[in-house]
UniProtKB/TrEMBL annotation:
GO terms for molecular function: (S)-2-haloacid dehalogenase activity. SUPFAM superfamilies: HAD-like. This is 2-haloacid dehalogenase. Keywords: Hydrolase. It comes from Streptomyces violarus.
């Protein structure tokens, strides 16, 4: 019997309210203030360093989080302590699911398989799968792919794992630069931008659908 169509998802900031900058600030705020470093400048630098980490040759996500934090603190003349990383990872493991997600996933499972392609480690994603509370048919991590989105290698690993052909795949994600842009020419059936933060897209990457959160996805897919 032919497999059902599948909806694949990014996890962090699509399903899980995963905000490392928000979790970082309470850890470093006092030290930033001591040397007069603007909070937003520091957090913007940190975000760029994490992105640089995922587009370089593969390392575990935990290492990227640790090294980007240490390097950003060094850049701004702030003392790094190993407990800073420990606190950040502990906070990341507890990030909550967006409230619109569980019901939408349960509805989709009436007609679709559901899958995750995540820029995560094999030993980090289980915390968030438990938080979501809805079983997935397939979970593919960057660790399994040996590469992070937006690299094509990450998506090719998803296609390798899924029994569905590309014309049976809908990919839904919040990440414009990590998911929507790089999937334009991959031949999948449909791309859905979950634009939770009211950002501006680009017609250069059409066709894609746009929704505000996952509650709109079942109706978009005709359910």
């Amino acid at each position: 019997m032919a497999p059902r169509p599948v909806v694949s998802f990014d996890c962090y900031r699509t399903l899980i309210d995963f905000d490392l900058n928000r979790a970082t600030l309470p850890i470093v705020r006092d030290r930033l203030d001591e040397v007069g470093v603007d909070h937003e400048v520091f957090l913007d630098n940190l975000r760029v360093m994490r992105f640089q980490g995922v587009v370089q040759p593969y390392r575990r996500y935990r290492e990227i989080v640790r090294d980007s934090l240490e390097n950003c603190m060094l850049l701004h003349g702030i003392e790094y302590r190993e407990e800073d990383y420990d606190r950040l990872i502990a906070a990341a493991e507890r990030f909550p699911v967006f409230p619109d997600v569980p019901d939408a996933l349960r509805k989709l499972k009436e007609r679709y398989d559901i899958a995750i392609l995540t820029n995560s480690d094999d030993d980090l994603i289980p915390y968030h799968l438990e938080t979501i509370g809805v079983p997935f048919d397939h979970v593919v991590t960057a660790q399994q792919a040996g590469a992070y989105k937006p690299r094509r290698q990450a998506f090719e690993k998803l296609f390798e794992v899924l029994p569905q052909s590309r014309d049976q795949i809908t990919h839904a994600a919040q990440g414009w630069d990590y998911d929507i842009m790089p999937t334009k020419d991959l031949g999948i059936a449909r791309r859905v931008w979950v634009n939770r933060y009211d950002l501006k897209g680009s017609d250069a990457y059409q066709p894609y659908d746009e929704i505000r959160d996952l509650s709109e996805l079942p109706a978009l897919l005709g359910m």
